[in-house]
Structure formats: structure tokens, C-alpha cells
Amino acid sequence: MLIVGELINASRKAVRELIETKNAEALVALAREQQAHGADYIDVNAGVFVGREPELLTWLVASVQGSLEAPCCIDSPDPKAIAAALAVHKGTALINSISLEKERYDALLPLVAESRSNVVALCMSDEGMPETADQRLGIADRLVNGLVKSGVPLGNIYVDPLVQPVATNNAFGVEFLQAIERITQAFPGVHTMCGLSNISFGLPERRFINQTFMVMAIARGLDGAIVNPLDQRMMACITTAETLMGRDAYCMGYLKAFRAGKLAAA
Amino acid sequence: MADHLNTIRDAVIGGKHGEIKGLVQQALDAGLDPGAIINDALIAAMDVVGKDFGAGKIFVPEMLVSAVTMKAGLDVVKPRLAGGERQSRGTIVMATVKGDLHDIGKNLVSMMLEGAGFKVMDLGVDLSVEKLIDQVKSIQPDILGLSALLTTTMPEMQKVIGELKTQGLRGTVKVLVGGAPVDRAFAEKIGADGYGANAAEAVELARRFAAAKA
């Protein structure tokens, strides 16, 4: 399971202030803490700084990687910001994200191919947001084929089928779950991932929905997630679901989490 | 008479979408004024729903089912209105700006504005400045509601306001903005007339604008 730590996101007020005051030390500490709790990638997002995003996203990558060996998940809808941040990134980055929206697709495709990065392929097109599993599969098909034809290895692609709130449509949970399973079957070797907290928009006690949905998605084949690694309960759910899905030889991952005290406190 | 209205009001608040048509029909059969059913029962109920949602007492699905119920009730009353068309509180054009395909929040706001008695023209998503200006010219709404869910598309809102000014239309329409990355400071910076953090706030603002105009 690929874990992307989501906390360095400027839409969080505390992080926005750290970026505004260029407090690299505190940001590195936040990155280090996420890594210690199991994050494989550190997400960096400076989206709220309209006009300054390329400059600040670049600064974020350089700051995090300046004193920590950790690849970043470069999180922006703006190809210019991604290009700038990618230029200073060390190691294999995860670009978050390309989509089938024409402008974004055309600008990012060469960047993904040339940099040999991993990439999140978001199931969204100029026709709008997909609602059904069929629509998601259709977009995923075009994205995966386009990327592979440009030389991006299948294993570098993380399809995000796009989570939508179940509060606004009963079917949004099940359509997403079906999409995960069908994408996993249709493109063997491709990965899936998502930020799933959108599922619980509009409902109270969102953590129950988020945790349950995570387990259900892993059961259908999800193998990547953008989460808060400091959320011990969520991380314990992920570890356990992986064990139950047969992805944890001799239950070593589960036992390791137990010995590290990660299950008791959750 | 008050009984009928109260029953309808409670049914909308409780989201009893299976029962509402029968209840409204009974009220009409009992000789109640269609206008009273709309204003004092259906819209009055949605006012309560909006306030409860704004206060965090009820949640999105409950608001949705109330709106569905309200609409079903309205469908029964509408043919009985003298002249067919009921008087609205005002016309509102809603849209998500260019480059942005998010519509869940905008749809919720549109629905609640309709529930509050406004005539809502929802233009959908990915609306260019030119298209929006054309629509403002032809529909001549009292309010223009703009939504953006991406930091990259927020500046489109400013462009729309700028173009309204250039074309001499700014004085004719109030501009309301909203969406996850949008905040009050941004709304003030770009010269919008109001910012709603959620559907309830948007309805409250629209109501205030309508009252000021009346």
C-alpha cells in the first residue's frame, strides 16, 4: 500500500502560515513525522497562493528534501507549478495529478513521460465528473492508454477514480468501489489511489465513514491512499485490511504494527 | 386551514416525499389558497430546513430530501395558480466558472434558493466569461451566483466581475460567490457583493438582496 502523507497542504491554516513565513524547519518536522508514521510520499500543496504557486511549491519541495530523504507528491492542478517543482525534485516524484481535461492533459503528458515520475491519473474529463463505474472506466481507459503510449510504464500509474460524496447520491460509494475493482482487473499492473475523505462530505462523524470506506476500497483492490498518517485508527484499519486481503505475508505487517504499539493506541 | 398548512410544513421538514402530494391535494380540495400553500407551508418549511442546516442540526441528505419533498408539493400546486406563473422573490443565475467542473456545492445552493422561492437558472459548469455576460444580458437576473472549487479557477470570478463593469452591467446585478477555496477576504478583494460559506448563508444573502431591492 502506497501511503501519501497529506498534511503539508496550504489549505490547512497552520500550514499556510508556515509557508507564508517560510518556516522550513517546522515543515520538515511535519514531513519527518509523517514519514515516521508510514508515509511513502510527502504531499506538498501550495494551491491557495494564487499567482505564487510555482514559486512556493518549488520552495516546499526544496525545503522538505533539503534535510529529509523523502520523495514528494507534487499536488497541483496547474502544470506550470508542477513543472517548476519537478525541476528541483530529487528521486522519483509522484505527480498529482493528470486528468483527461484537455488543457491539463496536453501540458502534463510530456512532463510525466520525460521525468519518469509516478503519476496520479484522475478520472475527470472535459465532459465533467464521472458518476458511474462505467464512466470512470471509460476515462481510465483513455488515460492509461495515453500514458502508456507516451512511454509511461503501467506500474507508474495510479488511477484515482474520483470519490464523490455519498450524502448527495446513494450510489456514489458503490460506483466508486466497483470502479476500483474493474480498473484493477482491466489493467493488470496499474495501481489505484485516492484521497477519500470527500466520501463523507455533508455528514457528521466523518471518520467512521472514511475508515469504513477505506477498508471497503482496499477489499476491492485499492493500493494507494492520500491520508493523514498520524491518524492512528485509520492507519490501523489500512494495515489490518491489507493483512485480510492476503497482501501481508505471514501477517508480518500486522505484527510489526502491533509490536510498534500502533494497534493498542488506535 | 392552519392545520393543513402545518401538516404540509412538517412533511417538508421531515422529508416525507411519499406523502406530500396527497397532503397538498387535500389542502387544495379543502379550498386553501394555492399561494398560501406555497408561501406559508412549502417555502416556510424550507426556511426552517435552511436555518437548521446552517446551524448544523441537520445534514446534507436531510436537506436534499426536504427539497425533493418541497418540489413534489409545488408540482401539485402550480397548475392551480391563477395565471400559471407564481411570483418569485427574484431571478438568480447560477454557474461554475470556466475550467472548473465541480457542481455538487453549486447544485445544493441552487436547490435551496429554489426552495426559498427564487427563480433559479442553473447554467451548469465550465462557463466562460463571454457566455456568462451573454446570459446576464438576456436573462437580466437580480443575482449572479458563481462557484469555483479550484484555486486555479477562482480568478475567473474576478474576470466576470471586471467584464460586468466594462459592459456597464455591474449595477444591474448582485454577484454572490462561493466554493471550497473561496473566502470572505477573496470575495471582498474581487469586489463581489457577498460570500456564502454554505447553502444556508447563500440563501440568507439572496434574501437580503431581494429585500433591499423591493
Write a structural description.
The complex is a heterodimer of chains A (266) and B (214). Chain A is of the alpha/beta class and 266 residues long. Chain A is 48% helix and 14% strand. Chain A has ten helices and eight strands. Chain A has an eight-stranded parallel β-sheet with strand order 7-6-5-4-3-2-1-8. Chain A is globular, with a radius of gyration of 18 Å. Chain B has 214 residues and is α/β, with parallel strands linked by helices. Chain B folds into two domains: 2-80, Methionine synthase domain (Methyltransferase, Methionine Synthase (B12-binding Domains), Chain A, domain 1), CATH 1.10.1240; 91-213, 3-Layer(aba) Sandwich (Rossmann fold). Helix content of chain B is 55%, strand content 10%. Chain B contains nine helices and five strands. Chain B has helices at residues 2-13, 20-29, 34-54, 60-77, 104-115, 129-139, 154-166, 184-189, 199-213; strands at 91-96, 119-122, 143-147, 174-178, 194-195. A five-stranded parallel β-sheet of chain B has the order 2-1-3-4-5, sandwiched between helices. In chain B, helix 3 (34-54) packs antiparallel against helix 4 (60-77). Classes of the chains: A alpha/beta (266), B alpha/beta (214).
Strand order of the largest sheet of chain A: 7-6-5-4-3-2-1-8
Give the overall shape of chain B. elongated
Compute the CA-based radius of gyration of chain B.
Answer: 18 Å
* SSE class of chain B: alpha/beta
Total number of beta strands of chain A: 8
Strand content of chain A: 5-15%
Task: Just give the CATH class of the largest domain in chain A.
Answer: Alpha Beta
Q: What's the architecture of the largest domain in chain B in CATH terms? A: 3-Layer(aba) Sandwich
Q: DSSP helix count of chain B? A: 9
Portion of residues in beta strands of chain B equals 5-15%
Shape-level CATH architecture of the largest domain in chain A: Alpha-Beta Barrel
Q: Helix content range of the residues of chain B, please?
A: 55-70%
For the sheet with most strands of chain A, the description reads:
8 strands, parallel
SSE pattern of chain A: EHHEHEHEHEHEHEHEHH
Distance between the termini of chain A: 19 Å
Low-confidence stretches of chain B: none
